[in-house]
Amino acid sequence: MSAKLFGHLFTFLRQPKVVGEMLAGVLLGPTCLGYFFPALASEIFPKSQLPFLFILGNLGLSFYMFIVALELDFSLVDKKMLKQSGWLSFFIIVAPFALGLLFGVIYFDLLKGAAGTLSFGIFLGASLAITAFPILARILQENGLLKTRMGTIVTLSASIQDVVSWIMLAVVLMMIKGSSASGFKTIIGAPVYLLLMFLLIKPLLAAICRRFFRKEGDFSGFFSFTVILILASALASDYLDLHSVFGGFVLGLIFPRDKKMVEPLIIRIKDMIITLLLPLFFCFSGLNANLLILQDLGYLVPCMVLVVFSFIGKYLPSLIIMRMNHFSLREASAVGGLMNARGLMELIIANIGLTYNIISKELYSMIILVALLSTIIAMPIYNISMRRRFSYFII
Question: Which of 148, 158, 132 is nearest to 379 (CA)?
Answer without folding.
Answer: 132
